[in-house]
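SAMPLE LOG
Freezer: B-3
Tube label: C17
Construct: single chain, 330 aa
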Amino acid sequence: MRVGQLRRWLLMRGAESFEAMTDLPKALRVELANAFTPFAGRVVKHQTADDATHKLVLEFGDGGRIECVLIQDAGRRTACISTQVGCGMGCVFCASGIDGVDRNLTVGEIVEQLVRLRNLPGPRNEPSPEGVERLSHIVVMGMGEPLANLDNLLEALEIATAKDGLGIGARHITISTVGLPAKIRRLAESGKQYHLAVSLHAPNDALRNRIVPTNDKTGMDAILAAAAEFFEKTGRQVTYEYVLLGELNDRPAHARELVAVLRGRRAHVNVIPFNEVEGLPYQRPTDLALQTFIEALENGGISVKVRKRKGSQIDAACGQLRRKTLQAPG
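STRUCTURE (predicted):
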């Protein structure tokens, strides 16, 4: 009974201390507070942008730090969460992988990000009438390769989708991967209706090997075949993410080649103009290059959308804020 009460307070009612759990006996609340903490991590940095985007850096007991983000727009409250401390995929434009990967996050550490983000105020800094704003969507696009920590991620998402958990519909959850074919198939076989996003970033293996070093072990053909199987088993259209890097993968020829690769597939392309990261030699594409790239995809019959830039005031690029906190004195 007491475990059920604790679960409801933490997952459904937004409590962040045992003292706030008013239907527990006071003596028990004191005993719990002396022995435990509601959260495993602590917030070492919290930035808020004018568009009501929040970015948190959490530090866990072993000193590992990760980022998570709350994006609020048009009535949607989307949590972007991490699955690893650091990242081992080595994508050349990403701040998360500069220092490699330290470890997988536990189930509790993944869920904690969702709860902490859910508890943040809404766009008008006002609580909901029920006292706690709900999350509407989850994107697993933060630090780390989600499919490299698939078991813990799936268990955490079971809590997120449970009626006595966070109550988020499976179809409102997107898992992003750099492309691990065997794990994509495992995700498809899980029977869940999660959405899959594949971080492609190039239309051919030669260029992708430069941008995503792990591609030389898999190759695009194997990734695309696994994504096709995911669609066949789940009926869920696959999204292909394409970070547009100025003068590297943003030429009209690249767009036309991407059209040829994706033609005939149930696919959608998310074009993401690069957020510049201090210390990396890559640049944001020009507005003309972005528009030309989009038009080439649309003219080729590809469904495409440009991801809005949110939180530009708060070290928006993945891993950027965490890296700054690690470099700061003390």
